[in-house]
Amino acid sequence: MVDVWKYVIKMKVPSPVSYVSAILLIVFTAGVYKQLTLTQKTANNCEMTFMFEYPHFVEISVPMNRGKYNLYAYTEGQTMEKIKSMKFYGTPVIFIPGHSGSYRQVRSIASVNIRKMYHIQSNIKFDFFTVDLNEEYSAVFGGVLLQQTAFVSQCIDTIIKTYEYDYKPTSIILIGHSMGGIIAKGLFIDPLFDTNLVELIITLATPHRPLFLADHYMDSYYDQVEKIWGNGLDKPRSSFLSNISLLSIGGGHRDLMVWPCLTYTPHADINALSLAIPGVWTSTDHQCILWCKSLVKSIVRVLFDSAESDSDDTIYEWRKKVSSYHFDKRSNGKWFHSNLHPVTVKLNEPNVIEWNETYKLQRSISLEKGTAMPIVIHLPLVEKSLNYEMTAEAVNIDYHDWVFSCKPDYRSKKHCLFGTNWSSNSTISVSKFMKRRHITLKLPNVHKLGHANLVFKIKNTKKPTALNIDMYEASDRTNEMTWRFWYGVFNRYLLWNVNVFETIQYKTILHGWLDSICMHCVYNVHMVPIKCSKKNHHAVSKFVVPWTQGILHGITSDSYVEPLRISLENIPLSNATNDPYLQFILDPKCNYRIELELSIMDTIGTIGLKYGLTFPSYIGIIILLVLSNQFSQLASSTKDDCSIYHNSLPSIIRVFKTLAFTICFLTVMQNQWPNINKPIGGIDWLGHPLKAMIFSSLLYCITNSFMYFATVALWMMMLFWGKAINELLVRFIMKTLRKNATLSDWILYGFGKLPIAVSMIAILISYNTCGTVGLIISAFFYYFLLCTMVQDCIDQLIYYPIIFFKEYFMKGEKPGLNLSLTSIHLHFSLFLLWLLICGCHLPCSIEWARNYHHSKSLDPDPSLISSLILNTCAGIMWQMDIPKRNLKFYTQLSNLCIAASIILFLFCQTALFRIAPILTLVFVVITLHQCFSSWIGVQDSTDNQVSGANDKTPQKKVE
């Protein structure tokens, strides 16, 4: 019996590189899976906000409304009747939801604001409004961005007009979540928009750099926003935006939709991650950032403190101070005011215990039961070296002002009457138990003031209180390391081995961090206690980047260990000369071993998620290279045959040669025209030749392995599910038309024989609904045609033994098997091309389905032109027997596919919307080549005869 696999699959044994690629694919899949399940497996330390009273949303009519958007005023409790009667007295705050976001997501911030207003009995009032944007998928379909922006602009005008004249606001506050933050920034694109209306914009988990460019509408929108807001480098912010405060808050590593590198924007006054905000200290996912109680409280405090100023600063400068205090360096209290830390403080208070320490450089004071009387500690500075520093840790010291420097009174020569306050330099730190504040002072800065004493104050309290002081020479506690991305790969890299007690501060400076080849590598810093003299202990690790806001923390406390997670993606590029550094505040009663470890699976998962955005371009490159080989075989083979997809894959040597040449050209192009490929998501290595070669080769191998297994699965489905698919289609037609099976078979048979009808139907559907819908319908029919073609070949193979027995034993003739798979192989590659184009336009169909109850057709529709062209080509190609034999220009067609693959590599890795037009053009050229074969003519048969004479074995077997 004839072997089915020999004729239908006919695949080569995979090369060793294929096995390596398969291993890489498995490892990357495991890493991505780990990242995707990260938020489910790790504890969410955010406490959810809760409602005191039932929320209500009062609809406000907006002129020129398109019908699918709405505006609401939020109210609850005592304010309900006033809001329903459209009486507003406070500063308007407008919440703009993001991608698939609901207007109801304003509840947490609005409710906490109302509770806070009642609690502090403040005269400051805020009125919260929220915009309903129909939960549109604005992150994947840019066609709605201008519509949403125009509606929000109308909402602002409507809200201002709603206020009575005496209470008419002079400014508004915008809070945007996800893509809502981009809408808030995009309001200023319109030259008619009154920029004086907006004074503060707070963006939450907003991708200030696009996650991916699904269509040119999104690309154009981001370009317009950057044009007026600048990029922080060669494009400054427009002058009319100079007094607008912009605060950007990201969720950190738990947010798998908008990564930390995307939430950073160089034109923001404050860029902060939730895990670095004082009092929050936890990473939030994309939705949690809206209801995380500690973060919401910080935002509300910024709103109240920004609205009331008792200083001589301008409004813009005051808001910047307030936001910096709450989101960056909070020294103590929950509220900020201009006199929070007075510069000069009186120190000689009555009824205090004065404690003078003269010689000890390290001192720890632990008051388990508190103290009944205030304590003042004087630490003389006896001609210390210029390189000395002092680090102190205050535990449960609630007093705002607790550390000072002074010059002793000339009469007592020991104590000070007044001191200079350094408490504003301290910052509260993450703690598992009890409140902690840390401060590090360079003693030369103290000596410059002529001061010779450091003074610490502890107020009387019944709570357990402690004060740890460490004075040291900076060079003894600082080590410097030139960064290498492979540190901690196999074994933990030792940073510090602290084997002495009483010391609390150590620092490691990281040189060359920003030059690392792996920008998305994830590292964990572990503080392992070796020996402790007491049961309870607490240590904190900090990652400090001088030119950014916020400090990342890690904790080691008793049996609880939370390593410090650091990654290059959290650090924006800067021209600053200061290097990032690690700071460790240790428990003076413990010895520690501090180690650095590369988290391999987290790194692989991060790279897989971010660089996975380039997979569509690499899939297109691979398919085009396969088509190139198939056309090359058709041009040179005496059998006019092209092999199966898996046997037409190019050799790895040829691929790497092409990559090397293309990367050189790409590097030159990026340096000359950097805006051609703008960085999206986590892809920012296109202009770096070494990184581009490494990651491009890696992505190609992984994509190639994925496509290998995917196409094998597709072939299996066509081999074994052909009849099943036919039966499913028959049942579908029966249920749709309510006819019997015989008529359904005839209809299906008619479509198979007259596929141009399917093409015309798909064109009509595309024109009246959405282009992607027509592409998907044609894709299903294309797959049905392939299954039919494969099924016909299998039927011939199955019945061949019977025909052979009849012809050979009864007539004495050996029958031939006229079985050619060339047409199937070519159609299979074209079908893969079709699927990729559908995938690139898939966001259009999703948005069309979302808005179907509002409009039957998608407007605008980026997929319409591709759908009309491809369905027209399909209607022609499905009618023909392709590929045509012995045609000219197969070699040129092969070269065209190679050129198109190079163009995909150069221009489409960061701009996915460019993939479909290029592939559509290739499809059109192939169709024209096959359609006008009679005009093109056939190639000279002499070449085939010569090449056939050189073959040692005749080609008699089946193809």
Automatic annotation (TrEMBL):
GO CC, alphabetical: endoplasmic reticulum membrane
Gene Ontology terms describing biological process: endoplasmic reticulum to Golgi vesicle-mediated transport; GPI anchor metabolic process; protein transport
Subcellular location: Endoplasmic reticulum membrane
A Pfam entry, by short name: PGAP1
Enzyme class: hydrolase
Transmembrane segments: 16-33, 611-631, 651-669, 746-767, 773-794, 815-837, 893-912, 918-938
Family of this protein: Belongs to the GPI inositol-deacylase family.
Entry function: Involved in inositol deacylation of GPI-anchored proteins which plays important roles in the quality control and ER-associated degradation of GPI-anchored proteins.
Protein name: GPI inositol-deacylase
Annotated source species: Aphis craccivora
Organism phylogeny: Eukaryota, Metazoa, Ecdysozoa, Arthropoda, Hexapoda
